[in-house]
């Protein structure tokens, strides 16, 4: 069980295997965010393909993706309690979610790919009742800006509270 904390930074799949010209500029921005001192806890995930994963069995994709924690591109400050989690699906592990995020009162979610792993992780947090924001300015999609924007539109439409003045076009999903 993780130590309860107030604010967590959840960094989804910012790893060498998803580094492209499109995602590259987000890495230093996410690194700076991790170093701001506003977080009590950090969670880093990385995707690894295995013969048991849906990507391998169902989609026949990423057949050579053998990531490990060494492939992570973000390195939180030494004093920040951090958990590194391997995953073989788009989203977060439902059965271990409380172990992973602990008793956080708020989670900021960032990372790669907005249109897949980020949105799936946000839905998992939403379904589990966590308070979180998807910080779109710290997210990207390997397939391009259009995919990132589409992911943010879905996140804002499906997961975010909307006031009459707000529209679904913002790049940050408000707290839920």
Amino-to-carboxy terminus distance: 24 Å
**Helix and strand sequence:** EHEHEHEHEHE
Please tally the β strands and state the result.
Answer: 6
The amount of helix comes to 25-40%
Return the average pLDDT rounded to an integer. 83
Biggest sheet features: 6 strands, mixed
What percentage of the residues does DSSP assign to strands (E)? 15-25%
Rg calculated over all Cα atoms: 15 Å
Low-confidence stretches: 163-170
**Biggest sheet: strand arrangement:** 3-2-1-4-5-6
| Overall outline | globular
How do the strands and helices of this protein lay out in sequence?
Elements lengths: L6 E6 L13 H9 L6 E7 L6 H6 L22 E6 L9 H5 L4 E7 L1 H15 L3 E9 L4 H14 L13 E2 L3
Parallel strand pairs: 1-2, 1-4, 2-3, 4-5
Antiparallel strand pairs: 5-6
Short recap of the structure:
This protein has 176 residues and is α/β, with parallel strands linked by helices.
């Amino acid at each position: 069980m993780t130590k309860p904390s107030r604010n967590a930074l959840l960094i989804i799949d910012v790893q060498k295997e998803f580094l492209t010209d499109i995602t590259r500029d987000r890495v230093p921005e996410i690194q700076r965010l991790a170093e701001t001192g506003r977080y009590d806890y950090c969670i880093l995930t990385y995707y690894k393909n295995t013969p048991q994963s849906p990507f391998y069995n169902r989609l026949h994709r990423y057949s050579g993706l053998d990531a490990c924690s060494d492939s992570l591109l973000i390195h939180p400050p030494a004093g920040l309690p951090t958990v590194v989690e391997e995953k073989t699906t788009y989203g977060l592990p439902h059965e271990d979610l409380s172990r992973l995020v602990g008793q956080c009162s708020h989670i900021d979610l960032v990372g790669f790919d907005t249109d897949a792993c980020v949105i799936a992780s946000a839905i998992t947090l939403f379904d589990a009742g966590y308070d979180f924001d998807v910080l779109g300015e710290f997210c990207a999609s390997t397939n391009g800006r259009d995919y990132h924007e589409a992911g943010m539109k879905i996140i804002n439409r499906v997961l975010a509270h909307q006031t009459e003045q707000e529209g679904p076009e913002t790049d940050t999903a408000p707290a839920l």
